[in-house]
Fold this sequence. Notes:
B: two-stranded antiparallel sheet; C: 253 residues; alpha/beta
Amino acid sequence: MDRRRIEENIFKGLMIVSTIALCLILVLIVAAITFKGLPSMRLSMITQTPKGGFYLGKEGGILNAILGSIYLAGGATILALFLALPVVLYLNLYARRNGSIVRLVRFCLDVLWGIPSIVYGAFGFTIMLFFGLRASLLGGIITVALLILPIMCRAMDEVFSMVPRGLLEASYAVGATRWETALKVVVRQGLPGMITAVLIAFGRGIGDAASVIFTAGFSDAVPNSLFRPAATLPLAIFFQLGTPFPQVQNRAYASAFILTMIILFISITTRIVSRKYTRHIIK
Amino acid sequence: MNIRVYKDKITARLMGVIAFLSCLILVLIIAGLYYRSRPVLELKPFLELLTSGSWHPLRQEFGFYPFIMGSLWVTGVAIIMAIPLCLLTSIYLSEYAPGYLREWIKPLIDLLAGIPSVIYGVWGVLVIVPLIKDTIAPRVGSFSSGYCVLSGGVVLGIMICPIIIHVSLEVFRAVPRELREASLSLGATRWQTIKQVVLRKARPGIMAAIVLGLSRAFGETMAVLMVVGNVPRAPGSLLDAAYPLPALIANNYGEMLSVPLYDSALMLACFILLLVVLLFNIVARIVLIRIERQM
Amino acid sequence: MEPETHIRVKNLNVYYGKDHVLRDVSINIPDKRVIVIIGPSGCGKTTLLRSFNRLVDTVDGVRVSGEVMVDEENIFDPHVELTHIRKKMGLLSQTPYPLPMSIYDNVAYGPRLHGIKDKKKLNSVVEHYLKIAGLWEEVKDKLHTPATQVSIGQQQRLCLARGLAVEPEIILADEPTSALDPKSSRHIEESFLRLKKDYTIIVVTHILRQARRLADYVIFLYCGELIEHGPARQVFESPREKMTREYIQGVIS
């Protein structure tokens, strides 16, 4: 009938198209990586370390990078958890609710969250120079821990701030201290949310390249010491793609496929965990 | 005093200190990068470094102009691409889509956010670069290697969509339902209501979302580095190669220690990046906090 | 004589997900008077009100069966032109929600939507309806300031003027005074009494004294069911149903 109907329908069409396009891009990315990476997948890719001439197209695999990434992201996640848990408990249990301290800390965490990973890398490197550390697994762990700290804090903060007031008061009412309440009530109530936060942070840690490029270094050996350089998956992909040899580039695609699968696995696990366990939570 | 109470007191202190330290990281980052970039700042005034176009580390000439232009071009393309896509999608999800569809699509967008930037880079090399080299560049009658501003912008544009959509959806949710109803009950169509009421009310928040996306794009490193060509010259068109600041830092860190002042110059690049991102983030967060408080 | 009716409700059922919110409500709403819907909170008063202009639709997971006839047109018919229906009814919500624009633009919003572009005409429309809502004297010098800057009582009258400006036949008011101070409430009630010779005004309230002050006709809902309806005097003085009597006496709430 009238122009406004037509206009609405045009825009609604555009909206649907752009929503579908975004979802499609996700599919396209996963599909492109899979189609290109799967044919070059060999068992040796995930069971062997690079042999001599690996970057010229010879034998070997990227076990060093897979394990390196897992150690690095795992270490960083644990370190970040030990820092994040007190911060979040402090925000939700100890500090005055919505007081200026709480607001300031949340604001800082939000801003930290927005700082690019390359800046964390440069900062991590500065710290390492200060302490006389060289590019090493430890350096990478510290840097990535700093990078994922705000992510973890904000995710857990959201979970803990949902813990009903009444539950805390019930615990206080039977004479529990804040610390006992934190351990026995809040952490238990927030456990699934914490697992989700940890998984999100781990996923971010395992996928980030810019922060480890000069803090963790690279090595063809499986890391066996905190003070030795360690390879990481994203960098392995990056370096292999940078060589002029097609075989090595194909292996880069296979490596990208491995990383994508790890990330998808983590994301989906996160979703299942958060869905499965939230049923046991008092809303 | 009771040991339990002691424990409580001690943990309270400790947690307060750790919370304080986590804020201190921000200060430390700023101070650290400034400290490391001072040597090159003593060599030449800041403004001259920003506007000079000659980048010859061996001659100790550090002009950041081409890199800053590279960053601006790539970020610009990304944001121009992302804005319509994100606005349309988030309006659809918040105003039109039925609940179950929204619950299905939001996790997909989260998944998009979780994909590592290296994977975006590989995808860019696999799909976008050949597309531009073989299809788009010949179509407009010019030549391009495919590694150019446009590739970087497209890949970045996709990467920043999840964050913009995520924040926009929160902002739309903060628009009271009664406001929509008031407009609908006057006989406005849904679309008129969105255009004249919802979007108007949500405008500051949407701006904040876009600024957050912008700062994300400005600092993104790996994906851009892999598709943008990395030629230290200010780009003149979408099909020229560019060399954004983060790529400069990531690419040259290994060799930097042997050349005097080189590392300081790279740290300055980092510092510039940090300042821009901080500014964007602080402004956006303040706007978003205001909106949250209104809720 | 049976009064004329514009709104007829026939076997209306509304579900929110699994909740059965309105159960088989049938009623003819008489014209040109103040109709008050009373009942305890959560009994479906607001849902009934929002069924009249299909704002119930905006809730996720809502299902509706039955008919609401407005001017012999079933508004739950999927082919119906909604904006046309909604234009016939002004809505006043619990707390005033001025649109994010100036006072002037708030009132002009509706007329502009429906095609009035002429500046002079708009000016006179805005003035006219602000006068009807009893707000003109207070805001005539600051028509172009943001609507959020006037007091909340003035905002509610502004919302009334905004609703009237699309020339509705019916005014739907959902506890319109619950957020207001007593003086502003009185302003709103007075304008209802003034307007009822030209409009059908349907008010939801849980304040019985307000219902007695305003009502010409009363609808009593309990747990989603229509218990009783009739002229105010009859319902308040000699209710037919035991439940109505108990509610009015404050035994149940």
